[in-house]
Amino acid sequence: MAGETVMNAINESVSLLSIGADGWGDDLLRGAARTLELGALSLLFGIAFGLILAGGKLSRSPFLRIPASGYTLFIRGVPEFLVLLLVYFGSEQIINQSAISMGLNGDFAVSRFAAAVAGLSLIFAAYACDVFRGAYLSVPKGQMEAAIAVGMSPTKAFIRVRLPQLWRFAIPGLGNLWMVMLKDTSLAAVLAVDELLRVAKLAGETTRLPLLFLCTAGLLYLAMTALSDLIRARIEARSRRGLPES
Amino acid sequence: MYSELKFNLSDSICDAVSPVASDLFTSACPRLFDGFFITIEFLLLSTVIGFFVAVAVTFARLSGNAILSYPASAFAYAFRGTPLLVQLWIVYYGIGSLGEASLGPVLWFVFKDPWLVGLLVLVLNTSAYASEILRGGLVNVPKGQMDAAMTIGMSWFQAMRRIMLPQAIRTAWPAYGTEIILLMKGSALVSTITVMDLMGQTRTVFARSFDLEVYVYAALLYLTLAGTLTFTLSRVERLWR
């Protein structure tokens, strides 16, 4: 009797998680794809902004150095959740106020997906900038001196000698930050972005089986982080090729 | 006693700043400090309890006994591989949805209470990360010390606790400090399961006023907490040098 109940429950779960009109499987996978999209875009913008911030932190001018350091201190001390909400509501108010001041009616809605990408990239950049800074300082100074001594301009030496090696030192740190950010994409569910966690929550509410769907989402996140870890190890090994074993 | 102290403290701070603060801050001040204290409570409790759970998990992982080490490793892997928000929602909305009938009175008492669920999940989450940090520290202590301790008659557990762990904590301290700051930031997520911590109160005030200022005040309070933590942690580090 108890065995039969368990079998029924398993059958029901399988059909609910299947792909197609009755099952939520395809919706969950689409949510996972959206999660990866969110993560990938934030990674891209985060790296770009992180490089700029690192430039600021390494510069001799205090007008660049102090704002860059202040920014990273702010992001490091404030919850990611707060940053995301601040970016979302903040950008909406700024855009609408400037629209009103230009004589337009101020009822623009900021895309929640775009706000999530902006928020996640801003957070990623603050951590990535210290990774880049460390990587920059890890390239031996003598190499730049040598490059300039053979007649390269400082810009050329930077592009040909320092930048390619910078990646090698930055990759392990960036890999760690990617794993952290992949998990932080779930915060977008609170902004009602249709990513994995949000889909799972809605499916759970509709079917009245929240535990099943939230656990499935958890397993999908686990699969994504495990896969990321594998890819990260590959990229790290590739970036170290040709170097002596340390 | 304690709640009276909190009340008096927030009252006097709010009174002191009211002449210079904006109207919004003056009206939101008691709420924000109410939440601020809850955030601090969550942070202190989950750090302390989480440390002991982390030590237990780390010992289990390194015990060499498969019945202990596999579940402990699986626990750490699962909690480090999934988002904190998912963990909170699985426990509060997922397990909580099973109801008193299937959970029984004791479990229901825990799972119906957002404060207890928040604390439970934060403790489990931070202990998973902390056990990874402690394990790193323990592996770096020379193995000969363990052998020596056991040779003079200490049990495995005694040697771990008295000889290995204190040294591991010393080397792991900076990483542990980073984890405590991350825990503080993560604790803001308990507001999504209806706990009125600093973030919860801030969102409530914002939902009524639609004034972004309140998020700035919350950010300042979080920054104050982060600064205090960083200062204290580095002080402790210097104490050991």
Provide a concise account of the structure shown:
The complex is a heterodimer of chains A (246) and B (241). By secondary structure, chain A is mainly alpha-helical. Chain A has helices spanning 2-17, 25-58, 62-77, 80-101, 112-138, 141-149, 154-184, 196-207, 210-239.
Characterization of this structure:
The complex is a heterodimer of chains A (246) and B (241). In chain A, helix 5 (112-138) crosses helix 7. Chain A has 9 helices and no strands. Chain A is mainly α and 246 residues long. The longest helix of chain A is centred in the first third of the chain and has 34 residues, at 25-58. Chain A has helices spanning 2-17, 25-58, 62-77, 80-101, 112-138, 141-149, 154-184, 196-207, 210-239. The radius of gyration of chain A is 23 Å and the shape is flat. Chain B is globular and about 70 Å long. In chain B, helix 4 packs antiparallel against helix 6 and helix 7 packs across helix 8 (156-186). The longest helix of chain B is centred in the first third of the chain and has 40 residues, at 23-62. By secondary structure, chain B is an all-alpha fold. Chain A binds chain B through residues 73-74, 76-82, 85-86, 89-90, 93, 183-187, 189-190, 197, 201, 204, 208-211, 214-215, 217-218, 221-222, 225-226, and chain B through 78, 81-87, 89-90, 93-95, 97-98, 181, 184-189, 191-192, 199, 202-203, 206, 212, 215-216, 218-219, 222-223, 225-227.
